[in-house]
Specification:
It is a single chain. The two termini are 30 Å apart. The protein is α+β, with helices and mostly antiparallel strands. The protein is globular and about 55 Å long. It folds into 2 domains: 78 residues, Ubiquitin-like (UB roll), CATH 3.10.20.740; 146 residues, 2-Layer Sandwich (Alpha-Beta Plaits). The longest helix is centred in the middle third of the chain and has 17 residues. It has 6 helices and 10 strands. Strand 1 and strand 2 form a beta hairpin. The relative contact order is 0.14.
Length: 241
């Protein structure tokens, strides 16, 4: 297996062939923030929080999403510059402004990756106008609920359903601010003919968008690490007789 040597934040690191910048950085103890990335799922570069600066041929730098950019020989990368910090702070603010996130009454309050990211990026107020869209809450499923007000369109639920459970229930419908996560062909979740009620999408959700029915403020804790455990166990064939 070939190995690449690259430089991240003035530190020489090694990356295996096929590894992304994000994977190489984390293996070497270099933190890069993400929201759409989740161990065990494919990467799509949806949130753009993992942007890094990669030295370009001829001078200057290029902004590239670390989760979907392959590590290459002699890359020179910066992960924590003033420019990147400002971009990340802006992204988090825009996520809050796009939907109706009221942390104090959210089932995932104090257990929310978006909330944690806001703290980490120093977001103490929103500089942009709130869009205040009309977003529904789907409580048609007997076990789970979907609150579009909390959704950040990371598509982790879509990928968990597709890649881990294999049910292909979830997808994204609409464009721009009208985008919504939908079950089947925009059917109520409880009427879905493909949903297996496994709860893997709920485990994957970084916010309070997907939750267990009956959860009240601050009670919803997502078991995200279970997905990577399931994927790892399948790859190693640990359950085969």
């Amino acid at each position: 297996m070939s190995v690449h040597t690259l430089r991240i934040d003035e530190k020489d690191v090694s990356a295996r062939a096929g590894q992304t910048i994000l994977e190489a950085a984390r293996e070497n103890g270099i933190a890069i923030p993400t929201l759409c990335h989740l161990e065990g799922l494919s990467n799509v570069g949806a949130c753009r929080l993992c942007l890094v600066e990669v030295a370009a041929v001829g001078g200057g730098t290029r902004l590239m999403a670390a989760c979907v950019t392959a590590a290459a020989e002699e890359m020179v990368i910066q992960t924590d510059t003033e420019r990147l910090r400002e971009y990340r702070k802006m992204i988090v603010e825009l996520l809050f402004a796009e939907r109706n996130h009221v942390c104090s009454v959210c089932v995932a309050n104090n257990h929310c990756e978006l909330q944690d990211m806001a703290v980490a990026q120093g977001v103490d107020h929103i500089r942009y106008d709130y869009l205040e869209p009309t977003c529904g809450v789907d409580l048609s499923h007997q076990r789970f609920g979907l609150d579009h007000n909390r959704c950040i369109l990371c598509t982790r639920c879509v990928r968990a359903c597709d890649e881990v459970e294999g049910a292909h229930t979830w997808d994204v419908s609409g464009r721009g601010t009208l985008s919504r996560v939908v079950a089947d062909l925009n059917a109520p979740w409880g009427a879905s003919e493909t949903c297996t009620s496994c709860g893997k999408c709920v485990m994957a959700c970084p916010t309070g968008a997907l939750f267990h029915q009956g959860s009240t403020v601050s009670e919803m804790i997502h078991e995200r690490t279970r997905l990577s455990f399931l994927v790892d166990a399948r790859e190693k064939k640990q359950w085969n007789a």
